[in-house]
Structure formats: structure tokens, C-alpha cells
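so ive been stuck on this for like two days lol. basically i have the seq below and the ligand is flavin mononucleotide, smiles is in there too. i just want the complex predicted, nothing fancy, no docking runs or whatever. if the output looks off dont worry ill sanity check it later, just need somthing to start from for the group meeting slides
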Amino acid sequence: MDNKALILDGRIGEDAMAERSLGFAKAWLATQDWDVTTLELRELDIAPCVGCFGCWIKTPGICVIDDAGRDVAQAIVESDLVVYLTPILFGGYSYELKKAVDRSIPIISPFFRRVKGEVHHKKRYARYPRVLALGWLERVTVDEEDIFQTVAQRNAINMHAPKAVAEVFKISEDDETMKRRIERALSEVVES
Amino acid sequence: MNESQSHVVVLIGSPKGVEKSSSAKLARAITNGLESAKWACEWFHTHRVLQSQEDWEAMVVSMSRADVILLAAPLYVDGLPAPVIETLHRLLDARNMIVSEEDPPRMLSLLNCGFVEAEQNHTAQMMVRIFSDDMGFQWSGGISLGAGGTMTKRIRAALEMVSEALRDDVLIPDAVAITTTAPIMRPWLYVLGGNFMWRRRAKANGVRDQLKAQPYKRV
Ligand SMILES: Cc1cc2nc3c(=O)[nH]c(=O)nc-3n(C[C@H](O)[C@H](O)[C@H](O)COP(=O)(O)O)c2cc1C
């Protein structure tokens, strides 16, 4: 495995949890010689997907909207590991992160295939990054944690991630625990 | 609309909006039966209410007098489209203007996805349910459709049953989910037909031979 990591910071406002998780993730990746790019998504000009499928049937592989959403899709394909940082909203990703995720379907193929009896899409590229999703909540509930974990694994099927790991934190989590869990999750997701 | 009239608010969560989306077409199969029973029906588009304060306020006012709130949206990467998440998140802040403790509206969601299996909407349905609970609405269930929301006779009949249950203010019958989640065709046939359709559409755009392009291939 090469060592290009992309951190997609999905904070929706000032967010101490985003700062903390970003700090711990970057520090660990640096010790392991990863080349890290961080994108704070709310600072970028990323229009929401318009649902036209032009990225498959008009300009295959490239979104028809010419803004930073294209760059994020490209950066994903060019990475070995993508780390999502997000406050958890209704069990799922923040809208800032989801905007970028919705705009990343150009990197897969329109063609259908069957995976474990279900319909999904084929790959466009030979390689896709592994994914670590780090999410946080004021109060961790079983439902929301379960949805977050499930979405991470479902996304891995649809976006061809060879491996996906998700971790959910409560915002009162102390630094020591958070650091340890993030380091463990990172080593788990990158291990071959 | 008048005070005695029942009132449904439809939130369309597809970028294709109230005119062109499968979400809206499916929602209409429910609201038609409400309108013939003289319900007032107001439609809003999540992508638009985020762009216009005036539309946003109209939606909040409309929701505050709703008996039923229907969210109709497509599945996007195993979740709700980003602007739908943003709308729901902002609505939580407006909760006090929308819900009164005595008589909260019923909420249901109508999600459709591109794959043939309606069950793929499951995680997104759970998200809408959490929103509904957080708002203090009466959760009335999630209706899931696969195959791009293809409207068959069976599905139309199931959506008419939903309409009837809303009119009578009773639970949505289990028969609805049984009908809407039954795949409209075998997965292998859907794969075959779908792949044929992508080729045909690319050909119409003159890019049939570029379908497998890899513009971001790593060197
Ligand atoms: C960005 C994007 C992501 C999508 N993700 C999924 C998905 O994860 N699973 C699925 O079955 N369909 C997915 N679809 C397909 C849509 O759910 C499907 O085309 C739906 O019928 C669109 O409904 P609408 O016309 O109401 O927008 C996706 C489509 C787009 C544009």
C-alpha cells in the first residue's frame, strides 16, 4: 500500500471535535510517513449533485459541474486512505461531507454488477482508497451509532473501498481515550 | 385553504424537483387521493428552500399547520442527498415554530433508489425516522421503492392505500411495504437491462466508447 491520505473535514461550524480528531489523526499519520492532504469542505465551493448522471453518460468520469467537487473526486481516487471527519446528523454524515460524497459518483462506473445477490456498480478504476469514518455526537445512541457503522460498510461496497472502519465518539470524550481510539482505528484500517 | 381542511406538506428532496423527479411522481400518487378528499396540499423543494429565506419561511408556516408531512427523496450513496440533510438539520432549529405538543403531525417518508432492491433505502429511512422523533412528529413509517421508482400498477395501488390510510387517520397497512419492496424484476435482468440503458444513453451523447474513461487514473 502507498501512503497518500486525504482527510475530508465535514464540520459544519466551529467544532472542537473536528480540531481534536484532525490533530490526533494527522499526528499518527505523520509518525507513519503518510503524505496527508486535508480539505475543510465547508470552505470549498462544492455545489450539490444535480442528479443528471452526466458524469456517466455525457463526460464519463467527470462531473458536469466545474467546481471544487471535481477536485475532491479526483483527490479521492488518487488516495490510498480517506478519513472522514464529521458531526453525526441523524446517524449519518454532515451535509458538508455528504455534498462531497454525493459528488464522488463519477469515480465509479454506471455499469451494474451483482454483489452478494444485490445490485451495485462496477469499478471505474483499478484501485480505490480505504476509508476511516470518524463521527461524533453529543449523546451516543445505539440507533445512531448503528446507522453510522452500517452506512460506512454500505458505502464501502458502493465506492469499492477495500476496507472501511468507523468510530463514534461522544463530544465529552477525553483526549487520552480519543487519541487511543483514533490511533487504533487508523492502524486497523491501513493494516493489510 | 381553510381551517377545517386537512393539510399535507410534501418535501421533495430530489435535485430534479417537483416537476421532474421520481420522488415527486411517487408522492403525487399519494397526494392525488388526498386532494380528491379536499385536503390542502403544499409542495416544497429542499434544494430551493435553502436558497431563499422567503421559501424557507413559507415552508415553516405550512409545516406548522400540517396534519401530515411527507418527505419524498432519492437515495444518494446510502443516505439522504446533502441538501435534504441540511434542510432537516435546519428544521430542528425551527422545531418550536412547527410542533405543538398536543397535536404533532404524522410524518412519513417515501424514498426511492436506483438499484432494484427497495431495502437498500433502509439506512436512509432510519435517518428520517430519527429526524421525525427528534422533531416530536408521529412517525408513520418509511415507504421504500427500488428500480428508480418505476411505477407499476401494483405500486400505484399500494400508494393509493397509503393515501386512504392518511385520509382515515389509521396506520399504514403492512400490505404496503410487502408490495413496495417486492422487486419489480429479477436482479440479473435488472443488471442486463440497466447496462443496456447506460450504453444507449451514452451513445445518444456520442460517448459510447468513452464510458469506461479513467480521467483521474494514477500514473
Ligand atoms: C449522487 C447519486 C447517488 C446515488 N446513490 C444511490 C445508492 O447509493 N443506491 C441506489 O440504489 N441508488 C442511488 N442513486 C440512484 C437514485 O437514487 C435514483 O436514480 C433515483 O431514482 C432518483 O430519484 P429522483 O428522480 O427522485 O431524484 C444515486 C444517484 C445519484 C445521482
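Chain A touches chain B through 54 residues (CB under 8 Å). The mean pLDDT of chain A is 97.
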